[in-house]
């Protein structure tokens, strides 16, 4: 039984992870709770265990070849290679959907992340990929949610306007994870992912996604929106300053003030006081009329 491990606090260092926890992680019985646990995983062992648990031959040549070369890749890339091997193995199987569901509902967040990456490998059109990845965008584990938006990032880069149109309804979803996904997926720069050149050059094309989020009550969403605008400020500072000034005039919510303040951080660091003052003047006007 591993129930008593589910509410644990993650160890501050890899060396401090209890053997019982590490064993459960490698068996695929519990999710990781921090980066140290993620880095401590024996990915090859976990892959074989998950394969067995979802009905894939753990000794399959395709998987064995992948596991043999894992050390040549960075940690995050290793997982993409494992996911791809599992995807390829099931390519000709009539029960691939059953296997995909078993992975998508697996106790291990890593297995669920591999399932999310299957969406990336598929040839589905963007709308269908978004439908498929939604369950992972709403996953209770932060790591799976990150993999979810990265799984469809390339499609957004190649079809910005279609992506924005499809994501407008995600931006008003009841689930804060879904709203945050819409913002994070369309960030002009983002982290650990390809940049969206079209949104770096013309971030206003993504405004329909972040506009509904200007006073969002979730700090998780607020931070993403602020990072979105901060990304855009590195190529279009005046536009970001104008958006921040307008949002401040239109909303007296503390959430908006927080987003605006964080959105302007790169502008302030670069000494663009003229842009920063535009937003600050709007804050003053709103404060005096409140």
Summarize the structure in words.
With 290 residues, this protein is an all-alpha fold. It has 2 domains: 1-151, no CATH class; 174-290, Serine Threonine Protein Phosphatase 5, Tetratricopeptide repeat. The chain has helices at 19-27, 35-40, 43-54, 61-68, 75-89, 96-104, 109-121, 126-137, 142-150, 153-158, 160-167, 176-185, 197-201, 207-210, 219-233, 237-250, 254-263, 265-269, 273-289. α9 packs parallel to α12 and α12 (176-185) runs parallel beside α15 (219-233). The longest helix has 17 residues, at 273-289. It is globular, with a radius of gyration of 21 Å. Mean pLDDT is 93; it is low at 285-290.
Give me the secondary-structure category: mainly alpha
Q: What letter string, H or E per element, gives the SSE order? A: HHHHHHHHHHHHHHHHHHH
Helical content band:
55-70%
**Largest beta-sheet characterization:** none
Write the layout of secondary structure elements.
Elements lengths: L18 H9 L7 H6 L2 H12 L6 H8 L6 H15 L6 H9 L4 H13 L4 H12 L4 H9 L2 H6 L1 H8 L8 H10 L11 H5 L5 H4 L8 H15 L3 H14 L3 H10 L1 H5 L3 H17 L1
Helix pairs in contact: 3-5, 4-5, 5-7, 6-7, 7-8, 7-9, 8-9, 9-12, 12-15, 15-16, 15-17, 16-17, 16-19
Task: List its salient traits.
290 residues; mainly alpha; Serine Threonine Protein Phosphatase 5, Tetratricopeptide repeat; globular; disordered C terminus
């Amino acid at each position: 039984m591993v129930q008593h491990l589910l509410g644990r606090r993650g160890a501050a260092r890899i060396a401090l992870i209890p053997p019982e926890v590490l064993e459960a992680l490698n068996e695929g019985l519990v999710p990781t709770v921090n980066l140290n646990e993620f880095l401590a995983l024996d990915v090859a062992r976990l892959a074989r265990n998950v394969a067995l648990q979802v009905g894939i031959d753990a000794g399959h040549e395709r998987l064995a070849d992948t596991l043999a070369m894992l050390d040549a890749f960075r940690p995050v890339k290793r997982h993409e290679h494992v996911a791809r091997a599992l995807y390829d193995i099931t390519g000709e199987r009539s029960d691939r959907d059953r296997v995909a569901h078993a992975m998508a509902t697996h106790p291990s967040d890593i297995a669920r992340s591999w399932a999310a990456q299957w969406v990336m490998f598929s040839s589905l059109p963007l709308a269908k990929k978004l439908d498929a990845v939604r369950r992972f965008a709403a996953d209770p584990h932060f790591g799976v949610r990150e993999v979810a938006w990265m799984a469809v990032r390339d499609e957004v880069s190649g079809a910005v306007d279609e992506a924005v149109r499809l994501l407008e309804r995600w931006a008003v979803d009841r689930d804060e994870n879904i709203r945050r996904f819409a913002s994070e997926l369309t960030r002009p720069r983002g982290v650990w992912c390809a940049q969206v050149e079209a949104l770096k050059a013309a971030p206003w094309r993504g405004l329909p996604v972040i506009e509904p989020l200007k006073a969002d009550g979730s700090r998780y969403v607020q931070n993403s929106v602020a990072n979105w605008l901060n990304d855009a400020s590195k190529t279009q500072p005046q536009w970001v300053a104008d958006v921040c000034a307008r949002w401040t005039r239109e909303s007296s919510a503390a959430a908006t003030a927080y987003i605006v303040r964080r959105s302007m951080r790169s502008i302030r660091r670069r000494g663009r006081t003229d842009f920063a003052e535009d937003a600050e003047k709007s804050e003053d006007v709103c404060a005096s009329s409140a």
